[in-house]
């Protein structure tokens, strides 16, 4: 008699390679423009959250990136929230990375980025937000505590990410271990050079290290969604989809994930073979929506994982019952980025009313009017 196959519910930590009977396949969606690709992903995330039907005790766990690529996704999500189409009240988020040594209220910290572009505009409770602390006294303990918090929430349901021109996702740059978890990572010079545009084009101001989730952390998510837009991402997409699994192109690790979804604009497919593009387009043309191909949405019980030795009490996950009425001062977001907004622009709402100096007023000037995609984008992050 064949041995019964274990289901992911029976394991404290879900193994993506021991997936249920759902079909495993690489899903690729191609849209003409970067904006269309971003809107598709935003709609996809909303559909997954709604299908999950999260509650306070059974939240939807969402992994999030920063950088140029996801800005339009966040703006679209905020618009849907303001229209009443979606709530993030029962969503728990884990961000991919954060610079080491950069103050939280620095305008280029990923704390500031997330509050500026997303958290300050929706109804997500502050205690549901998890971002790595790049100023922790013990960085190794901070990384271990981050992994422990993910495990205590039953793992990440959907991890959204971008990809760098060299094929890296998060700060897992070429040569990163494909079995890595959250850790301290020294940044490559190319990444420092690319990110210098956010620091007045002065490479000396760019942090040399970052905390980042590892490739295995991403692979342990039940579903991974990657956005890739622009011709400068074309080689990375080609290596990730058509090349072999290679630690020099960490995006390629997703070939081994049971439920990856890559959403590209037309420019990002320029290096792919014509038959590859036509294959994925034909799948969609047959009426097979990527949303029908994702894994079944079943709540995974939380697993108790003690915090590692060396992690401070302030790094532990805050529970709703112990949430302070005001966020501690060290979580305040820089409010000196005062910019005027047009009437139709996004403005901070519920989060700003619950946090002291929390909301950076509005979106930056590049988000006004039509969305323009930075051709160097996504180097900063979630890649």
UniProtKB/TrEMBL annotation:
<dbReference type="GO" id="GO:0005975">
    <property type="term" value="P:carbohydrate metabolic process"/>
</dbReference>
<dbReference type="InterPro" id="IPR006148">
    <property type="entry name" value="Glc/Gal-6P_isomerase"/>
</dbReference>
<feature type="region of interest" description="Disordered">
    <location>
        <begin position="1"/>
        <end position="20"/>
    </location>
</feature>
<comment type="similarity">
    <text>Belongs to the glucosamine/galactosamine-6-phosphate isomerase family.</text>
</comment>
<dbReference type="GO" id="GO:0019262">
    <property type="term" value="P:N-acetylneuraminate catabolic process"/>
</dbReference>
<dbReference type="GO" id="GO:0005829">
    <property type="term" value="C:cytosol"/>
</dbReference>
<protein>
    <recommendedName>
        <fullName>Glucosamine-6-phosphate isomerase</fullName>
        <ecNumber>3.5.99.6</ecNumber>
    </recommendedName>
</protein>
<dbReference type="GO" id="GO:0006046">
    <property type="term" value="P:N-acetylglucosamine catabolic process"/>
</dbReference>
<feature type="compositionally biased region" description="Polar residues">
    <location>
        <begin position="312"/>
        <end position="321"/>
    </location>
</feature>
<feature type="domain" description="Glucosamine/galactosamine-6-phosphate isomerase">
    <location>
        <begin position="38"/>
        <end position="249"/>
    </location>
</feature>
<feature type="region of interest" description="Disordered">
    <location>
        <begin position="309"/>
        <end position="329"/>
    </location>
</feature>
<dbReference type="Pfam" id="PF01182">
    <property type="entry name" value="Glucosamine_iso"/>
</dbReference>
<dbReference type="GO" id="GO:0042802">
    <property type="term" value="F:identical protein binding"/>
</dbReference>
<dbReference type="InterPro" id="IPR037171">
    <property type="entry name" value="NagB/RpiA_transferase-like"/>
</dbReference>
<keyword id="KW-0119">Carbohydrate metabolism</keyword>
<dbReference type="GO" id="GO:0006043">
    <property type="term" value="P:glucosamine catabolic process"/>
</dbReference>
<dbReference type="InterPro" id="IPR018321">
    <property type="entry name" value="Glucosamine6P_isomerase_CS"/>
</dbReference>
<comment type="function">
    <text>Catalyzes the reversible conversion of alpha-D-glucosamine 6-phosphate (GlcN-6P) into beta-D-fructose 6-phosphate (Fru-6P) and ammonium ion, a regulatory reaction step in de novo uridine diphosphate-N-acetyl-alpha-D-glucosamine (UDP-GlcNAc) biosynthesis via hexosamine pathway.</text>
</comment>
<dbReference type="GO" id="GO:0004342">
    <property type="term" value="F:glucosamine-6-phosphate deaminase activity"/>
</dbReference>
<dbReference type="InterPro" id="IPR004547">
    <property type="entry name" value="Glucosamine6P_isomerase"/>
</dbReference>
<keyword id="KW-0378">Hydrolase</keyword>
